[in-house]
Design brief:
Layout: H1 10-15, E1 22-27, E2 34-39, E3 42-46, E4 49-55, H2 59-66, E5 69-76, E6 79-91, E7 101-113, H3 133-149
Antiparallel strand pairs: 1-2, 1-5, 3-4, 4-7, 5-6, 6-7
Length: 150
Amino acid sequence: MSGTVTQMTETLLAQLKSETFVLLSTVDAETGGPTSSAISWVYALNASTLRIAIDHRSRLVENIKSNPLVTITVFGEGTVHAINGRAAIALDPLPNIPFKLCCFDISIEAVRNALFYGAQLSSAPQYIKTYDQRASEKLDGQVFSAMQKA
């Protein structure tokens, strides 16, 4: 594919260096069909690599191990970005976390605008955490710290 963008823009990179949520699309290991899940443990290592952490209880871990092709969908910069890549285990399990997480690095193969023609997002989706705020902040801090060191 000529003209394929294989790196994130500076704005997208900055967004993915701070807490945000994305949709992770994988191929289901059992059915072979597509599946999507919202995740928030995502971190941009650089313009061409994303790192994600996933709880081992999630089907996503087995999906990625069975088929490493993934898509990360990001809402930002007034649009929807589809980041296609290939995931590989960076560290399993991720140390110093109170439960078992698998850390994957995603080598970016393409970044494209996935919003339909003639549209612009007026605002990015936002979320709130519905469980203990202090526990959430502590766990997120542990996970992001471990991800950055992996």
